[in-house]
């Protein structure tokens, strides 16, 4: 049965209970104190899928990264740590294995379609009581099919068409209305699994996690150990405090954050930061000049910046790295006439430029952009932000490539200080960092 509001979340996690969160519906709160860095709970994915781009680098079943993966003998596309992982994944992989062979290069379902197919298969397979509880929680996950705009509806219809095309042989596909609801639920409640540098590894559904509400001042952070999600406190919490995560990137000013929340999750945030907008002035900082800059000039540049960001996203997969870098440099030059280097729109383009330079093996260029990010990132993001630690990590590895040992060690230690709180001191990312620092 579904846990009642006020009962322990799934009957097995101490220190947490469900409750009716004012203005938000369901929520989770703590029933005992938690310290910064303390684990509230961890949970396995109900269903998960590895990104196609990461095949060959990570195990499809447990998301372990290793150089000694065994390939599926039939499709030659999926890779596993060992026979145990391959057997563990077969119930899900068989949905795709023969289809990948049959369609060849034309096999191209979206990652969302792949995840929904696995959820449907899992729903049919699992009969145990504990899984029934999870299924009830999945049934409770939010759906916003009626709120989707035409563009989103078209994307969902394309995903559904992909599901029928690539999976109908192995799945009993429900009717169209039920599929629309399920795709909307997964799009709203799915989690992107990321590595230590925040690169996309795959997508997963965690029914228990769907109970956690959003705040731009989060009390916890979600990280991943393989395919399991872990929730740790990033603030000291006392009994009765609500468990709150951020659904979005918190770098941007209030209007941008709430536009994103409205577009993706169909609500706006009324947390203390959104009410006070205390960091907006720093996030939209303008360049110091002899004469003050007119508000219209600033507003026009904000509109230009948002347009430049949208265009970069549109062209990210069609233009060459050199062309994308030129787009970043042009927009930085244009915005730099009005915005300070610490302005979030400048930081956005610097971050993109850093990634492109890394891809192009321009280590000096990547370091130049990365070093400009650190101070404003540390000021504008909440404490223990993985966005900050990921830049330190990238810079540490870039310094290592240029044999700048002292800078490498310093950057890696700063990354580790954040990650020990966010991931826990026993996480394998921390173990890898300790080894790297010891070797330096």
From TrEMBL:
<feature type="domain" description="SET">
    <location>
        <begin position="14"/>
        <end position="248"/>
    </location>
</feature>
<dbReference type="Pfam" id="PF01753">
    <property type="entry name" value="zf-MYND"/>
</dbReference>
<keyword id="KW-0949">S-adenosyl-L-methionine</keyword>
<keyword id="KW-0479">Metal-binding</keyword>
<dbReference type="InterPro" id="IPR050869">
    <property type="entry name" value="H3K4_H4K5_MeTrfase"/>
</dbReference>
<dbReference type="Pfam" id="PF00856">
    <property type="entry name" value="SET"/>
</dbReference>
<feature type="domain" description="MYND-type">
    <location>
        <begin position="59"/>
        <end position="97"/>
    </location>
</feature>
<dbReference type="InterPro" id="IPR002893">
    <property type="entry name" value="Znf_MYND"/>
</dbReference>
<feature type="compositionally biased region" description="Polar residues">
    <location>
        <begin position="1"/>
        <end position="11"/>
    </location>
</feature>
<dbReference type="GO" id="GO:0032259">
    <property type="term" value="P:methylation"/>
</dbReference>
<dbReference type="InterPro" id="IPR001214">
    <property type="entry name" value="SET_dom"/>
</dbReference>
<dbReference type="GO" id="GO:0005634">
    <property type="term" value="C:nucleus"/>
</dbReference>
<keyword id="KW-0808">Transferase</keyword>
<keyword id="KW-0489">Methyltransferase</keyword>
<dbReference type="GO" id="GO:0008270">
    <property type="term" value="F:zinc ion binding"/>
</dbReference>
<dbReference type="InterPro" id="IPR011990">
    <property type="entry name" value="TPR-like_helical_dom_sf"/>
</dbReference>
<keyword id="KW-0862">Zinc</keyword>
<dbReference type="GO" id="GO:0140999">
    <property type="term" value="F:histone H3K4 trimethyltransferase activity"/>
</dbReference>
<protein>
    <recommendedName>
        <fullName>[histone H3]-lysine(4) N-trimethyltransferase</fullName>
        <ecNumber>2.1.1.354</ecNumber>
    </recommendedName>
</protein>
<feature type="region of interest" description="Disordered">
    <location>
        <begin position="1"/>
        <end position="20"/>
    </location>
</feature>
<dbReference type="InterPro" id="IPR046341">
    <property type="entry name" value="SET_dom_sf"/>
</dbReference>
<keyword id="KW-0863">Zinc-finger</keyword>
């Amino acid at each position: 049965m579904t846990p009642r509001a006020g009962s322990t979340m799934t009957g097995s996690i101490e220190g947490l209970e469900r409750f009716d969160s004012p203005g938000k519906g369901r929520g989770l709160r703590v029933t005992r104190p938690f310290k910064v860095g303390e684990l509230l709970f961890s949970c396995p994915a109900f269903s998960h899928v590895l990104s196609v781009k990461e095949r060959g680098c990570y195990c499809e079943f447990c998301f372990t990264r290793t150089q000694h993966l065994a390939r599926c003998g039939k499709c030659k596309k999926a890779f596993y740590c060992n026979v145990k992982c391959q057997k563990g994944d077969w119930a899900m992989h068989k949905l795709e294995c023969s289809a990948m062979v049959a369609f060849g290069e034309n096999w191209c379902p979206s990652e969302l379609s792949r995840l929904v197919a696995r959820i449907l298969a899992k729903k049919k397979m699992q009969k145990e009581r504990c899984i029934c509880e999870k299924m009830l929680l999945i049934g409770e996950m939010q759906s916003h099919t009626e709120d989707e705009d035409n563009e989103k509806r078209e994307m969902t219809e394309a995903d559904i068409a992909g599901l029928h095309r690539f999976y109908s042989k192995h799945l009993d596909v429900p009717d169209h209305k039920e599929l629309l609801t399920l795709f909307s639920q997964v799009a709203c409640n799915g989690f992107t699994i990321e590595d230590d540098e925040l690169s996309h590894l795959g997508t997963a559904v965690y029914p228990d996690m769907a109970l956690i509400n959003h705040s731009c001042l989060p009390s916890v952070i979600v990280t991943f150990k393989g395919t399991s999600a872990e929730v740790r406190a990033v603030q000291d919490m006392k009994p009765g405090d609500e468990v709150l995560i951020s659904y979005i990137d918190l770098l941007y000013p209030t209007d941008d954050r709430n536009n994103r929340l409205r577009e993706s999750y169909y609500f706006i945030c009324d947390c203390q930061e959104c009410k006070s907008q205390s960091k907006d002035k720093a996030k939209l900082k303008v360049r110091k000049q002899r004469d003050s800059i007119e508000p219209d000039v600033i507003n026009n540049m904000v509109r230009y910046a948002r347009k430049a960001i949208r265009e970069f996203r549109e062209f990210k997969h069609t233009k060459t790295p050199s062309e994308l870098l030129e787009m970043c440099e042009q927009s930085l030059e244009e915005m730099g006439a009005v915005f300070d280097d610490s302005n979030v729109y400048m930081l956005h383009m610097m971050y993109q430029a850093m990634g492109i330079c890394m891809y192009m093996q321009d280590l000096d260029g990547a370091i130049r952009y990365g070093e400009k990010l650190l101070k404003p990132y540390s000021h504008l993001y909440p404490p223990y932000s993985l966005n900050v630690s990921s830049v330190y990590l990238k810079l540490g590895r870039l310094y290592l490539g240029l044999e700048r040992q002292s800078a490498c060690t310093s950057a890696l230690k700063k990354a580790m200080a954040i990650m020990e709180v966010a991931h826990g001191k026993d996480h394998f990312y921390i173990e890898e960092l300790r080894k790297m620092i010891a070797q330096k």
